[in-house]
Design goal:
By secondary structure, this protein is an alpha+beta fold. The chain contains 7 helices and 4 strands; from the N terminus they run H-H-H-H-H-H-E-E-H-E-E. The chain has a 4-stranded antiparallel β-sheet with strand order 1-2-4-3, covered by helices on one side.
Length: 182
């Protein structure tokens, strides 16, 4: 015997005296459903089951999976941030924007200033940057001493010019320069 779908199963589930059972049985949809052949009712039941399954998948399961995926990605991002913060905690406690000491033991700011003075260069502005280096601005100074100064910083003190921007002025030999030194 094959399982019955439709009104018979509703009667079993709700009992014959259930108000829902009577309301369903008296509805135009139920009369039309009952007028269908057994094969057509089976097709309607399968279609209804497929529609319910699609609704459950699209309306319940898929949003849960998407939320879980987003939560895992967020967790991993937060975990990597935490690891980065723990790795840089000591630097932050030292006062993270201060320039790191050079290989000679001097502060990077002091080293940049003292070597510039040795080449008679006037630094317009120099300040520590967020990566432990120093940003230096030089305006209206001769090109050759600037070049020799940067060469000495690299050769004798092991510093690296991370970025350099040099622009000539109207007067020959004078330049404006902007350096990021690490």
């Amino acid at each position: 015997m094959t399982p019955q779908f439709g009104i018979a199963s509703l009667r079993t589930a709700f009992g014959q005296r259930s108000k829902l059972g009577f309301a369903w049985r008296d509805s135009p949809i139920a009369r039309r459903y009952l007028a269908l052949s057994a094969r057509d009712r089976r097709a309607v039941n399968i279609g209804l089951a497929a529609a319910v399954a699609m609704f459950l998948y699209a309306g319940v399961y898929q949003p849960i999976v998407e939320y879980r995926t987003a939560a895992i990605a967020n967790y991993l991002t937060q975990q990597s941030r935490l690891q980065w913060m723990q790795a840089h905690e000591a630097r932050a406690r030292r006062g993270g924007t201060q320039a790191a000491p050079s290989s000679s033991g001097q502060s990077l700011l002091t080293l940049v200033d003292s070597t510039a003075k040795a080449f008679d260069l006037r630094l317009t502005r120099y300040q520590p940057d967020s990566n432990g280096g120093v940003t230096v601005v030089i305006e209206g100074q001769p090109f050759n001493p600037i070049l020799k100064w940067t060469e000495r910083l690299a050769a004798e003190h092991g510093l690296r010019i991370a970025t350099a921007s040099i622009h000539g002025q109207e007067e020959p030999g004078l330049v404006n320069a902007h350096f990021r030194i690490r």
